[in-house]
Amino acid sequence: MSPQSFREKLIAAWERSGSLLCVGLDPDPAKLPLADVADFNIKIIEATADLVCAYKPNVAFYEALGPERGYAALRKTLAAIPPHIVTIADAKRGDVAHTARAYVTAIFDDLGFDAATVNPYLGADSIEPWVERPEKGAIVVCRTSNPGGGDLQDLRVQTVGGARPLYEIVAERARAWDRHGNVGLVAGATYPGEMRRLRELCAEMPFLVPGIGAQRSRRHGAGRRREAEGGERVIEGDAERSSDLSVHAICGVGRRVGRTARGATPLHYTDAVGA
Amino acid sequence: MSPQSFREKLIAAWERSGSLLCVGLDPDPAKLPLADVADFNIKIIEATADLVCAYKPNVAFYEALGPERGYAALRKTLAAIPPHIVTIADAKRGDVAHTARAYVTAIFDDLGFDAATVNPYLGADSIEPWVERPEKGAIVVCRTSNPGGGDLQDLRVQTVGGARPLYEIVAERARAWDRHGNVGLVAGATYPGEMRRLRELCAEMPFLVPGIGAQRSRRHGAGRRREAEGGERVIEGDAERSSDLSVHAICGVGRRVGRTARGATPLHYTDAVGA
User: What is the interface pTM, i.e. ipTM, of the complex?
Assistant: First the structure.
């Protein structure tokens, strides 16, 4: 029997949780209410594990602790995540094939992540090591919603069908790289039309959508919460980061969820296009 | 007195060594003649320190050892590099500003590198944390010579002056980001015309040029060596990697060197355009 594919694991996690929510685990020690990063993460995981389909540590925040200490905390964090929940290394790695394989060894084999975010700028052979194993997922950075996101991503590229933004070309490349159904897109689209267009290009792909909302940590007082309403307009701006919970969504066409963190406030989050 | 700028350190390293050579430290434990990665690196450093202007560990190969162990070996390696030699973290990081700052903390402050390679796909605010300190360098990935390097980098972008390849636009952005003279380019140009064009766009920048040559490790027998002759055609194909020494050059306009690793074979390396 072949192992569970990344796609199967993601679908199972969606169905079990009834949730598209992906919680970032991006600790900033200066803001943590607990001295130990892993202990803090574990409390977040315990409080949210039934409400999310995925956790997404951004490795930068662990490297910033001093990489030896930080990766030890990350490893301890990962061990506390229930095995049915998808783990995404937000690493945005991008390097030539030989080097990409070294990153794959670190992130998939040594740390045991289910998926990673990857940068497309170095092209097909830099992505291949990430996508060749169906049980692991590669989420290609396509359109980001940071202030400089459009500097390159919105450049108009000449194609036989006319000029198109670079991020659309990246989406098409990602589709071509997706032989095993294990490729996704980081789709922090700022305008609803962009998200619709990406859905047209990559109908079946999971989209990692940043900035759906943020919930302040207990230290800062609970309850500040932003919500994304259904329909096209799902982006509420950048999530608060640091010890805040940065909440992303992983969208699939036609998927809905009816509640958000802690179940208190219905989110009525709807996939941007599919629903 | 302000601290030595990155540019001043690089120029001093060029002048002291009479060399543009930058040796990669990319260990593959399966190929190492010594059990300990740091011990192996230290032997390389001892054998080459008078012949190079820079060392460039690619962090992927340390993360692949298990990041806790790998970064400890990297830290021990860095401690063995004489302080006048430039250290470049080949990390190709690229993330939004808040996250880029965490990477900067790890690579510049905690590990103490002089410079890092960075990926431009997320735009200006993702680069800003890398370039805002004159004593540290940011080497922007612009044109890479891997098989997929052209997949995005060669796309024709519409500009007011006509269609131009994406990598040229990246070079121009890098110039705009370079307020402190501490920005460089990864310029693995495959064709001499590309390198000349990048020099026209960024006349004053240091270029990190991969694949100038490779020398096999002692285990594989010494002496296999490829050389790049002067003039336009500096790229000899991808360097052999792993425990091989991957030799790059850091070019500045008009700079020449007259010898290469171990001094045995004159390289007559000449900057692609400037000399």
Answer: 0.85
